[in-house]
Amino acid sequence: MRIALFATCIVDAMYPNTARATVSILERLGHEVIFPAGQACCGQMHVNSGYFKEALPVVANHVKAFEAEEYDAAVAPSGSCVASVKHQHPMVARRCGDAGLEARADAVGHKTYELSQLLVDVLGVTDAAAQLGSYFPHRITYHPSCHGMRLLRLGDRQLDLLRTVRGIEVAELPEAEQCCGFGGTFSMKNADVSSAMLADKTANICGTGADLCSGGDASCLMHIGGGLSRQGSGVTTMHFAEILASTFENPAAVTGDVRLTTGRTAR
Amino acid sequence: MSGTFLGMPSLPVFGIGNLHEHEPFPKAAHRELGNTQLRANLGHATRTIRDKRLAVVSELPDWEELREAGRAIKESVMARLPELLVQFEANFTARGGVIHWARDAGEANAIVASLIRGQGADEVVKVKSMATQEIGLNEYLEAEGIAAFETDLAELIVQLDHDKPSHILVPAIHKNRSQVRDIFLREMEGVDPDLTNEPARLAAAARAHLRRKFLSAKVAVSGANFALADSGTLAVVESEGNGRMCLTLPETLITVMGVEKLLPAWEDLEVFMQLLPRSSTGERMNPYTSLWTGVTPDDGPQNVHLVLLDNGRSAALADEMGRSALHCIRCSACMNVCPVYERTGGHAYGSTYPGPIGAILSPLLTGITAEENSSLPYASSLCGACYDACPVKINIPDILVHLRGEDVDSKRGKNRRKMALPSQMDLGMKAASWALSSGKNLGLVEKALPLGRLAAGPDKKITRLPGIAAGWTQSRDIPAPPGQSFRQWWDKEHQAPAAPADATDSGRAATAEPGTEEKP
């Protein structure tokens, strides 16, 4: 398959290893990955903050960038951004009175998958160790991000993939389905409530005795990781793509603090 | 005003009464978060009721179909509201009831007070009701010299404590039983001074107190959960039986109900009587369901009135994106699953309607620009737990986002009454819109990533940011940005003259050996 990678703005700028891991996994499976150069962001921050007018050019750019290339499926290592592409883009176009863009956004959204969706539902990956050579000898726990869980109904796809990684130990996270409190600009506009939610999430994570908390959304992981770092917990976060990309020969580096993005790449 | 008023008012008539946030939500939340007793009570209570709900919902194999049926019935009610109201009025009137139409809280309060005075009464017993909380009826009657006695146990506790409800189903959720005992000892006439905090003894004390009122009151005031258009029947669903006392003992019964409570027909109750108890108290069926149709000669109240209340509902109905908020059956499932409500409690929302539904319903009823209600749609991380729990499938997260858009637009000067200066958020969003609407622009911005690394310093983390971003760093660090963005890495990898040899190998097998990926 020819697969178009939607890196998402936060992964592109802050967590490039997550995108490189995504490329690595897909190429390992024998697929061709392309990176539509015009892409930038899904616009979710603008939409969820009520700035529809400002969101429109961001949405239009995404649609244009992913129309410009030929591919079989687009993939992003984020449940939230994919949910935005699928559900919010047509809504923004409609609200701004652009019926043409609405139809085009629908078409792009139709071809866009979250990474675990693509791996499990389309590419038939059920055993990461056998099919991807994934090796990660650490005790982890896992936070299912809200939008993947409730907007995309990902279920246990990410967690099931993680469980099949060689050497991994997965500790169950109590109250896993509770939001971590990120919510985009919510974390700033309602910083006190957000911090209270985060405190409960990080306490639950630390209680599992895991080395790190994995998940499928870099933004939630940045939030959780930022809290774990501030508390000096020594527990870190890592996107599940990086764990799947980690091999015996090329293991992903785990630092004991906020993710060092200069560390060894998973590739 | 009585007589028939139908159709949309020419201008939106917004709701007034107890529907307003008087200070911005973040400020109110900050104060409530500091109340550790409140947080402990709320955490315990919402968790218990959440688990109960989940248990009784998951035992129904057709729960999702029921939710869909509930949504569809409500949607058709909203589409046919004028017609159904006329049908209801005709049937209710034919059975001896009297209908009064109230545009807003002021009209509704005046109608109720004049009806009570018409009976020569100066006190009433009340069935727990959200509509009368919304219009501030108790306060209005007090000012008119009429005493209103709440008979729902939790409402009684709140009233005796001169407090406000903080949850629509369990109004005293913010108080534990020791606090309740203290309130009874302090405020209840003739209470046993040796009262303990045992639930049974607290209930007995309340029963003795209320029994005196039931037997003496000539007028009762209630709300209604449902009104059936095809027969003119009203319904109240409750747990304690105190509502039944009020609905049957006094001579005069005055009900205040929002116009959106209508259902087309009796058979629709089948759906809602399954949805409501399971979603609200986590019970398969509630203990008391009272239904009445006008006057039954020599049995129960002989003067039966209904005040049909708009108070902003027509305005909400006119909002295409927001109107489904009127589907709400006041079950409170959304607040019990909401991580924000669980931590702040109901008072932080200002309005009679707290939690996720309140965050959309209050600004829809009052208009987004009313007082501080514009802060309510932001009181959510958009986690979506409320939408999943809602028995009539109100897409609360989408409506929250819609109302945020209304708020932003109203401050842009689209609403020309007030031209506000662009806020820090406005400026940031504009700049981000430029940066994020082209790959080139984002690439340019990413050239500045090394600056962020510099700011992060040797610890490789940023611990303090200025302005609105200070909210982030109050409890979280930000990692040092990477040396190069993904885009920069990709470009370097793919600009080499030896371009990928086989760019059209889309049919390659998906079973390559691990670790054998080619270098691009």
TrEMBL record, chain A:
Residues that span the membrane, as ranges: none
InterPro entries to which the protein is assigned, alphabetical: Cys_rich_dom (IPR004017)
Pfam families: CCG
Annotated Gene Ontology cellular component terms: cytosol
Domain Cysteine-rich stretches: 3-85, 140-224
Protein name per UniProt: L-lactate dehydrogenase complex protein LldE
Molecular function GO terms recorded: oxidoreductase activity
UniProtKB/TrEMBL annotation, chain B:
Protein name: L-lactate dehydrogenase complex protein LldF
High-level lineage: Bacteria, Bacillati, Actinomycetota, Actinomycetes, Micrococcales
A Pfam cross-reference name: Fer4_8
Location of region: Disordered: 473-520
GO BP annotations, alphabetical order: lactate metabolic process
All residue ranges annotated as the LUD domain in the record: 87-295
Keyword tags: 4Fe-4S, Electron transport, Iron, Iron-sulfur, Metal-binding, Repeat, Transport
Domain 4Fe-4S ferredoxin-type: residue ranges: 325-394
A molecular function GO annotation: 4 iron, 4 sulfur cluster binding
Record-linked SUPFAM superfamilies: 4Fe-4S ferredoxins (SSF54862), NagB/RpiA/CoA transferase-like (SSF100950)
Regions annotated as coiled coil: none
